[in-house]
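Quick illustration, no need to memorize.
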Amino acid sequence: MEGSENMAEKKTKKPKKAPVSKQPKKEENKSNKIKTRLIALFLLFIFFISICQLGIVGRFFHTLMVYIFGSMMIYPILIILSIISAYFVVKGESPKWKGPQTVGLIMMIIGILLICTYVGNMHSTGSMNNYIKHDGVTSGGLIGSLLYAPLSALFSPVGTLIFGIILLLAGLVLFSSKYIHQYKIKQNEQEAQNAVEVFENKKEKTKVKDFFAPEQKEKGFFPDKVFEEKEPLKEPDIDLTFNQKSMRLDIEKKRPKKMEYKDGVYQLPSFDLLNPIRNTGNLSEEAKHAKSTGKILENMFEEFGVNANVVHLYIGPTVTKFEIKLEAGTRVNRILQLQDDIQLALAAKEIRIEAPIPGKPYVGIEVPNKTAAMVPFNEVYQLSMRDHTWGNKLAVPLGKDVSGNLIVAELNKMPHLLIAGATGSGKSVCVNSIITSILMKATPDEVRLILVDPKKVELSNYNGVPHLLSPVVTDPKKAAGVLQQVVAEMERRYEVFADNGQRNMESYNVYAKKFNEKAKEEDKKEIMPYHVVILDEVADLMMVASKTVEDCIMRISQMARAAGIHLIVATQRPSTDIITGVIKANIPSRIAFAVSSSVDSRTILDATGAEKLLGKGDMLFSPMGSSSPVRVQGAFVADEEVSRVVEFVSKQMDANYDDNYVNAKEVSNGGSSVNDSLNDTEEEEYEECREFVIKEQRASTSLLQRRFRIGYNKAARIMDQLEQNGVIGPQIGSKPREVYIRGYSEEDI
C-alpha cells in the first residue's frame, strides 16, 4: 500500500513541471522577435541603398532587381519591400494576411508584370529570345518575360494584356475584401449607435411629457403609437355566433383575413435596432483566475489522495468548466464526496459537478467566474444569422453555453417548452428574448402569437403587434376560453389536412402553394402560419380554472405539433400541483432557472442541479432527447430594445386580431359557462368562499353556512360550482371533500 501511495504521489507531481517549461518559450519568442527585427533592419538598409544606387553594393542590387522585375517595376517593388521591412522592424512579426489576401497580392504582381512586359514588347511574340534585349532586361523583367512568352504565343499579345488586367482587378478585390468588410462593420456599428442616441433623445422627451401629464403615466417608456392603436379595439367588430342550446362556439370554416401591409411589403427588423455589443468581461483576468483555480483543484486532489488532473478548461460568460481526468482505478463518487471541500477551498458561492460528462471520459466541475459577463441579445442574434438554423422561423437563440458556443432552440422540433424558476432568476427576460426573436425573424403571415399574462405587466408592451391573434390576455377566466379556442383551431386544421390528404402543416402548405399557382382566386387554399401560445404564469391560471387549463394544455401538447401549434408554459412556482405529471409527460423540453431547493429542480428537470445556479439568466436547458441538461447563460434583452422592435413592426401593419380569440369565453364540459349558475351577488360570495376553502384546505356545505352565515341552498350551489371549476373534489360517502388547489403565501411566490 505504501508503494502504491508513493507511485500515486509521483504521478500527481508530474503535471507540476509543466509551468516551468513556459518560461523558456517566452524567452524564445522574445529572442525570435529581436532576430526578426535585426534581419528586417539590414534588408531595409539594402533596399534604401538600392533605390538611391549608393556605392558598388547599391548599384549591384539595383541592377539585379531591374533584371528580375524590369525597369518599370523596379522602384514600386523596392518601395513595397521597404515598407514590409519597416513593418517587421516595428512589430517584430509578419503581417497577419490570410489566404485570400496573399493570393490577391500575388495575382496583382503577376498582372502588373504582364502589363509592363506588353508595354515593352508590343510587337513581339514567340520564344524567350524575342523578349530579352541587348541589355538583358525588358519592361517586365525576367519574371514578366517567363510569364509573357507562353501566354502571348497561346492568346496573342492583346489577349495576354486583357488577361493581365483581369488578374490585377481580381487580385485587388481579394486583397481589399477584408478591409472593406471591416469598414462596413464599423459603419453599421456607428449607425446603430446613432439610432440608440436618437431613441434615447425621444425617450427623454416622452419622460418630460409623462411627468406633467398624470393620465399618461401608465404608458411608461413605450412609444405613444403603440398605445394609440389599442383604442379602436375597445369596440371590435364581432362576427361570432354562439349557440344557446349547446353553449359551444360555432367555428366557421372560412379563409382567414388577408394581411395588408401599410407599405405594401413587410420588412423584417434589423439588428441595428438592438443595443450595440459591448464587452463586459475581462478575459485576461478570468484566464489568470482559471489557471490559479486549476492549480488549487490539483493540489486539493493530491491532499485527499485522489488521482486526478485538470486536462481542459473552458471559460464561459458566468462559469468556468474544468474537465478532470481520473486515473485508472479511481471511483467517480470520490469527486462527488469532495463537493463541499472543493467549494470551501475555492471560496466559491456555488459549484456544480457533472460526473461524468456525457460523451467524454472526464468529470466536469463548474466554478463561478470572478466577474460575470453579460450576454447581449444582439450578439447571439448575429451569431444565429450564421447558424444552420437561420432559415427556421421558430429557431430562437437562447444564449451561450459554458464553452461560449451559441445555443439555439427550435420550437417546432421541441415541440413544446416548459420554463420554470424562482422570481428574479431571468424567466421573464427569457420569454421576452423568445418573443423578440420571433418578431425579428418572421412576418405575421408566417408566425402568429397568443400571449397570456395574468400579471398584466410582463407582456402588455406587445399589444398592437401584427403577429398577435388577440390582445394580450390578462383575465384568467378569458385565458381558459382562449386555450379552448386554440384547441378548436387545432381540430379545424386536422379536418383541413384530412380533406386534402396531408399529415402535417408543412406538407399541407407545400401542397397549397402548388395548388394556388393554378387555381382561381376564389378557389385558392389558405396558407397556415405557425401558432405560438405563451402562458407567462400558469400558476394563476390554475388557481381560477385548473381543470379547464390542464385539459387544454394536455390536448395541445399531445396533438398540436403536426398542426403547427406550439406551447410555451412559464411559471415561478415549480410545485407538483402546478407542474403536474400530465404536463411534464407531454412537454419534454424544459428550461430551469435558479430554484431554492433540489425538490423544485427534480420537479422541473427530473434531476438536481438547478438549485446550484447563480441566477440572472443562468439556466439548465434540457431539450427533447437529451441525456443531461446543458448549462446556458441566457441572452439579455433590454426593455428599450423590445420597445424599438415593437414600434418598428407596429408601424408596418395594423393589428389584425381574430374575433374568435378576442371574444373567447370559457365553456365547461357540462355545457354551461363558468359561473352562469350564480347571479351577480352570489359571484362575490363565491370568490370569498373559494379563497376560504383554499386557505383552510377543507370544504363542506355546513362549514360555508357557519362561516358566511348563508342558507343551505346557496351554500350547496357554491359547493357545486367549486366542484365544477376544479377547486374541490366530489363527495365520496362520509369522507371530507379533497381540495385540489394548495394554498400558498407570498413567501412561496
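The CA atoms of residues 29 and 671 lie 83 Å apart.
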